[in-house]
UniProtKB/TrEMBL annotation:
Signal peptide (UniProt feature, chain positions): 1-22
Domain Glycine zipper 2TM, chain residue ranges per copy: 31-66
Organism for this UniProt entry: Snodgrassella alvi
Keywords, alphabetical: Signal
A GO term from the CC aspect: outer membrane
Name of this chain's protein: Glycine zipper 2TM domain-containing protein
Length: 67
């Protein structure tokens, strides 16, 4: 039961976050994508909060420079 509630909540969060991107410029979308990808990569590599935040910051900077 708990698993299905968590899954439903995760799907709702993902759907809400994707709909929030509808009015973004391409630069904003690239920055947001970079933050997410960098945060995940930082977490996988460093396995702590500092690595996650550092990866998200670096990913945001890189994503904002992509055109």
């Amino acid at each position: 039961m708990k698993s299905s509630i968590k899954t439903l909540a995760l799907i709702a969060v993902i759907a809400t976050s994707l709909s929030a991107c509808a009015d973004m410029t391409p630069a904003q979308r690239n920055t947001a994508t970079g933050v997410v990808v960098g945060g995940v990569a930082g977490n996988l590599l460093g396995k702590d909060t500092g690595a996650t935040l550092g990866g998200a910051a670096l990913g945001g900077v890189i994503g904002s420079q992509i055109r």
